Amino acid sequence: MRFTFSPKEMDLLDIRGVNFIHPINVRIYHIKKSIANFEILLNVSTRIQLDCSDCLESFEQDMVLDLKIDDEELEFMDDYECNENPNLINILPFIREELIISSPDYAICSDDCKGLCPKCGKNLNYGRCDCVIEENFE
Ligand SMILES: [Zn+2]
Ligand SMILES: [Zn+2]
117 lies in a domain? Predict the structure, then answer.
């Protein structure tokens, strides 16, 4: 089963530090449900937009989560609205929370990001500036 949700549908528009601007793809590939046991395995993927902590430019990266919802999570989801159909639990709040938890606090656009010049603030990824940085390490 595949579903696609917009960031708006999932209430992901106003999350600090990360922009959800692409559709969120949810693929449920395993459901096991009996009275004693409950398990859903799913894969969530999207692209997120982040601001580089060094050069402050925004960039995008993939986000892929493999999630499992089982009895324990189900208890935790008690507060969440369940569908009239008891087989259909509303798992969106759970997915939403996992997406937020998994968003990095600190992000760098690339391994060789050169950051900003400490003097003039120019983004050094676009070329050098004319500042003379005194190397005063002693
Ligand atoms: Zn950067
Ligand atoms: Zn400079």
Answer: no
Residue 133 included in any domain: no
| Predicted confidence (pLDDT) per residue in 15-31, tens digit | 888 999 999 999 999 88
Query: In angstroms, what is the span from residue 127 Cα to ligand 2's centroid?
Result: 10
CA separation for the pair 112, 73 (Å, rounded): 40
| Ion ligand 2 residue ranges (Cβ < 5 Å) | 117, 119-120, 122, 129, 131
Query: How many domains are contained in the chain?
Result: 1
Give the C-alpha distances (Å, rounded to integers) separating 58 from 19, 34, 38, 50.
Answer: 10, 46, 40, 5
pTM: 0.77
Position 86, amino acid: P
Cβ neighbours of 80 (radius 10 Å): 13
Asked whether residue 13 is domain-assigned, the answer is yes
| 8-state DSSP, 83 | P
Distance from C-alpha of 134 to C-alpha of 131, rounded to nearest angstrom? 9
Q: In this structure, which ligand is nearest to the CA of 130?
A: 2
Element containing residue 30 per DSSP (H, E): strand 24-33
For residue 124, the CA-to-ligand 2 centroid distance in Å is: 8
